[in-house]
Structures are given as C-alpha cells and as structure tokens.
UniProtKB/TrEMBL annotation:
The encoding gene: panB
Full protein name: 3-methyl-2-oxobutanoate hydroxymethyltransferase
GO cellular component, one term: cytoplasm
UniProt record similarity statement: Belongs to the PanB family.
Residues binding Mg(2+): 45, 84, 114
Source species: Pseudidiomarina marina
Length: 264
C-alpha cells in the first residue's frame, strides 16, 4: 500500500486490521504487489533459495540483498520495503550498522535480523541511529545448522516461555515489528497478544497480526518441498494478479491461514 509507514502498521495492529505481506526480489513483481495493495514487502534472504537455487540462505550476501532491494524500490517507489540482513552480517553492533546502511541506501525502510537476546545491543544501536528493525523468532533459517532441520519451534513449555521472553526483550530494545516463523498456533496468539508491535506470522497460525509468504510459495512455484503453511493461490485464482488479490483478501478476512496451514 502506498504511503505505508511503521506507525500505520502499528495502528493496524491496534485496530485489529490484519497486515498482509510477501517477499519480493525484482521490480516487476514489486510493482504488481504494490498495485494489488500489499501492505509491505520483504526482500528476504530466501532469495538464496528461490532466486539462486541454493540449499540454504547462508550463501546470501549484503550486496545481493542490496541489489534486489534497489530493484524492488524501483518497481514500487512508494511501498514499505523491509530488507533481510543476511547470515554473519550483524555479528557485532558496529558491523550491523555498517551493513544496514547499505540496505537503507538501497531503498529499504526497515531491516530484519534473526535471533533473540544476543541482538538486544545491536537493535538498540541500529534504532538509535535511525534504522528501524524487525526481529525474527521461531524457526531461524540462518541457524539451520544448529537447529538440525526446518522444524516447528516452541512446542515444549520451556521453549515457548523462552520465545515469549525473547519477544518482549526485543520489543523493549526497540524492535518495531516481529516475524514469527513456524510455531504452534497457541504460541503465535500468545506472543501477538503480549506485544504492542505488529507480529507477522509465517506458519504461526491465524491469530498473529499479519502474515507473510515467500512469493514463489504463493504462486505454487516451489515444487520440491511444500511446507504445511503454504497455499498455492495461483491454482485457485488462475492468473497472477488475481492470485495476489486472493491472498490479500484471505489474510484480511481471516480465512488464510486455516487450521490445515497451521501447527498444533
Ligand atoms: O527470507 C524470507 O523470505 C523470510 C521469511 C520469513 C518470509 O525471512
């Protein structure tokens, strides 16, 4: 949506209006998403998987995210664009500031970082220097070698409590949005109710403040492995813009994600 800002997204959460978002990597799709009324777009490091054909997001560099951010910005000059900080680009607060500057100069409105309490100082430093931050908890694809697979997170009581604690701490440090990936519906609902910042779910159930999907998944282009939370909107809608409009409509009216796309 043109003229979207973080304060408008926060007001949408407060009003109970669902936020809808998708990844974008190039100008043509960014233009299509903007024209359909997408609330914001993420230049995700999932570009490693869906654009480059890598097995994980780990090989993606800041320069590559910046390149795709520039393209998305050219396609959607007025859109709210978030850019992922890739693996090992924010190991210290100083490095994070240096690398985030490249993404902001490329046209991002906000950067996203994966991780919990170890990021508090980094988030404070970025926010104090006028870089808005989205945190990312639950399944962290950049930590795939530690997690040992793409599994649902926060199923045990202690892990769920830990995720809630980390979410509150990230908000307290200045994060203005949270992406929550692959957690049980109940945990998605609990975290969304405890935070005042928008919580955007992907595989986190229907009760988060909004949803995000990788655009290739929305169009059914992911032929190998299909996560449970994915829906092929193109199959139902028939053409690209109708598919985007259907995704937006079903997130806004609460019909997507349904129980068949969510984890117990
Ligand atoms: O890189 C990505 O696509 C993500 C997802 C959560 C949408 O971070």
């Amino acid at each position: 949506m043109a003229g979207m800002t973080i304060s408008k997204l926060t007001k949408m959460k407060a009003a109970g209006d669902k936020i809808v978002s998708v990844t974008a990597y190039d100008a043509s799709f960014a233009k299509l998403f903007a024209s359909c009324g997408m609330d914001f777009m993420l230049v995700g490091d999932s570009l490693g998987n869906v654009i480059q054909g890598q097995a994980t997001t780990l090989p993606v560099t800041v320069e590559q995210v910046a390149y795709h951010t520039e393209a998305v910005r050219r396609g959607a000059p007025d859109a709210f664009v978030m850019a992922d900080m890739p693996f090992m680009s924010y190991t210290t607060p100083e490095q994070a500031c240096h690398e985030a500057a490249k993404l902001m100069r490329a046209g991002a409105n906000m950067v996203k970082l994966e991780g919990g309490e170890w990021l508090l100082e980094t988030i404070r430093m970025l926010v104090e220097r006028s870089v808005p931050v989205c945190a990312h908890l639950g399944l962290l694809p950049q930590s795939i070698n530690v997690l040992g697979g793409y599994k649902v997170q926060g199923r045990e009581q202690s892990a769920a409590e830990n995720t809630v604690r980390q979410a509150l701490a990230l908000q307290q440090a200045g994060a203005q949005m949270l992406v929550l990936e692959c957690v049980p519906t109940e945990l998605g609902q609990l975290i969304s109710s405890k935070l005042s910042i928008p919580v955007i779910g992907i595989g986190a159930g229907p009760h988060t403040d909004g949803q995000i999907l990788v655009m290739h998944d929305m169009f059914g282009l992911n032929s190998d492995y299909l996560p449970k939370f994915v829906k092929n909107f193109l199959a139902e809608a028939g053409d690209l813009s109708s598919a985007v409009e259907l995704y937006i409509k079903q997130v806004k009216d609460g019909t997507f994600p349904g129980p068949e796309h969510s984890f117990e």
